Amino acid sequence: MKTQYKVLAAVLGLGASLVASYAVAASPLVSDRFNADPSPHVFDGQVYLYATNDQDNSGKYWDSTDWRLISSSDLEHWRDEGSFLSVSVFKWASTTAKAWAPDVSERNGSYYFYAPIGGDRIGVAVSKSPKGPFTDARGTPLIDKARDVNVGDEPIDPAVLIDDDGQAYLMFGTRVPKIVKLKPNMIEMDGPIQDVKINGLPEGEKKVGYGEAPYLNKFGGLYYFTFSTGWPGQIVYATSKSPTGPYDYRGVVLDYLKISTNHQAIIDFHGKTWLFYHDKRLPGGGDYKRSITYTPLTIRSDGTIDQVVP
Ligand code: FUB
Question: Any idea which architecture 24-309 has in CATH?
């Protein structure tokens, strides 16, 4: 993991102008269990990584019904904290509803777990500890395809950013990225759900579109919106001076892997920036049996991100 090195243009057969934009890095796994859709966060100096539970998928679909937590204090050693929450905590959801890619946010000592359930609703659970126990914070879905306007095809893959001014934003969705402000209580929408516009997406043979897995970071005063381009998906990024966009497409962070989905998250930890994503590297792995890995990520002073070559 500590071995990150630049690849010379000659090695990759690329033009000199691209020398600085690729980095090859080792990428260790966080667990020998199947887990996917990493949502890593640093709380009180510890990394807490919330994940979809692929170990209990049937192997034919993403049909597990609980989420897993893995933690680390150094990004070298990982501790499996187990299954900490199941869809059954949301009484309005079927106990067989699918538990997909979650995200977590902390505010005023409470931890809010955003849980996409069954492909058409997002619930929010709250706890006083990052490890739980979590309880349903509302008693109703935060986002509901049957209830809310402009949720898109599939209101899944929540991603939360609390901005420097305290305003919280929730991104989510497939095919068309969505964003909505959250009230300070973190459990209610504050205004309409808006489409996120991305300018400059490549067309033609190297066409890039939004698929799923939105994630929002702020680095150096600039908002970085990363996402997967589809099924399979590249992980790409776009930047904006406003969290709600419009965003400008900037490039590829991680190219296609031989897997039907990908899903990324970026954190800063111990002075470095890290990219988390999933592949299917573990023995027996596949599209529904994924494994979470991570690697250093370089964001340059001009705002560009070096593409990671695993
Ligand atoms: O894990 C189920 C789905 O696969 C997630 O919601 C998507 O982001 C994709 O990774």
Answer: 5 Propeller (2.115)
